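Friendly challenge for the regulars: who can give me the structure tokens for this chain first? No prize, just bragging rights.
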Amino acid sequence: MFCNTWFPAKWTLKERKQREKFQATIRNIPDFMTLAALWKDGRSHSFLSAVKGLKSFKIIQTAKGNRKFIGYFEKWVDMRTALDNQYT
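First reply, four minutes later:
Bragging rights claimed.
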């Protein structure tokens, strides 16, 4: 089972203007949530398919070892839907 609590990504105004994308973050993802687990044999995991409007994502790890999943959405309404729903 994957983490399922989304948070709005926090960026400065300058960073937001550079990106012009709608982003949401799942913080403290488990170690087993990897690119290999989410994308296997050229097919996306059902978790990714369930998130309407998800255009791309990345998994990052900080120097302190904290990991998070950042989802990028084309439309604000799709990001808002992801923030309002719980995915498993």
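Helices lie at 13-19, 35-38, 46-50, 76-84. The chain is about 30% helix and 30% strand. Your move, everyone else.
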